[in-house]
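Q: Given only this backbone (258 positions), what sequence would you predict?
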């Protein structure tokens, strides 16, 4: 190996060491959202590496949305809350490359949303119920507004349910999958002549889910998630995938229209 090659390899190992260490400290809880990393100069001293390697490590950590830094900020990079952004990017690449199809995403969403609703019914607090009621009132108020505005309120309903479920991994993956599905199907909805019918169906579904969550009926809330997703997306998939979706509905004790 040439001297240039050895230098490049050493620099790669140096910045990866910083990235891996920061990731491990975030994963362990040693670093929490709102904490600060040391300054660039302190990182150079701590890891015994060149400033260029430290800067590369910080660029990678920022691209992963784990930290945010500002030029000439003496306080050091800020540790950010964990979000679904990296998962969304990965799903976006997989869907755009056709590695993952719409039917696969919808089937995964059926599993995640059903589990979210089940846990939300068991763990919801009075505050969650109030937030859901306010969200549904907002959706009713947006019935004659654009579908983009209504869609944001629809996603908010699911975000409240995910918070009530109290399962961070389910929340992260659920958020990413819902947005990936919406991105693939949104234009079809926007081009449809019956947008108001779509909105009314969402409101009726959310009302039924709210009633089940409020009653602590996890089985009903889980069933409603899968039945609704089947109704929304069955016409957008092939026969084989539709059969799988119907089986997922049946597993929760639900039924599908012939």
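A: Predicted residues:
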């Amino acid at each position: 190996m040439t001297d240039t090659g050895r230098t490049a390899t050493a620099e790669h190992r140096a910045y990866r060491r910083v990235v891996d260490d920061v990731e491990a400290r975030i994963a362990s809880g040693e670093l929490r959202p709102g904490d600060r990393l040391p300054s660039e100069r302190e990182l150079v001293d701590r890891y015994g590496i060149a400033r260029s390697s430290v800067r590369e490590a910080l660029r990678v950590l920022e691209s992963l949305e784990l930290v945010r830094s500002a030029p000439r900020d003496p306080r050091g990079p800020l540790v950010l809350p964990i979000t679904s952004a990296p998962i969304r990017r990965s799903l976006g690449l997989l869907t755009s490359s056709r590695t993952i199809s719409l039917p696969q995403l919808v089937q995964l969403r059926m599993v995640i949303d059903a589990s979210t609703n089940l846990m939300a019914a068991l763990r919801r607090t009075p505050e969650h119920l109030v937030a859901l009621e306010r969200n549904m009132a907002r959706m009713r108020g947006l019935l004659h507004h654009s579908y983009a505005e209504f869609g944001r309120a629809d996603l908010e309903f699911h975000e409240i349910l995910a918070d009530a479920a109290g399962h961070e991994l389910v929340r992260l993956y659920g958020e990413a999958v819902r947005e990936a599905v919406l991105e693939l199907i949104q234009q079809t909805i926007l081009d449809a002549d019956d947008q108001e019918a779509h909105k009314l169906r969402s409101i009726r579904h959310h009302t039924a889910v709210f009633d089940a969550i409020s009653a602590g009926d996890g089985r009903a809330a889980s069933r409603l998630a899968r039945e609704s997703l089947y109704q929304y997306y069955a016409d957008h998939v092939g026969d084989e995938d539709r059969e799988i979706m119907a089986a997922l509905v049946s597993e929760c004790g639900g039924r599908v229209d012939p």
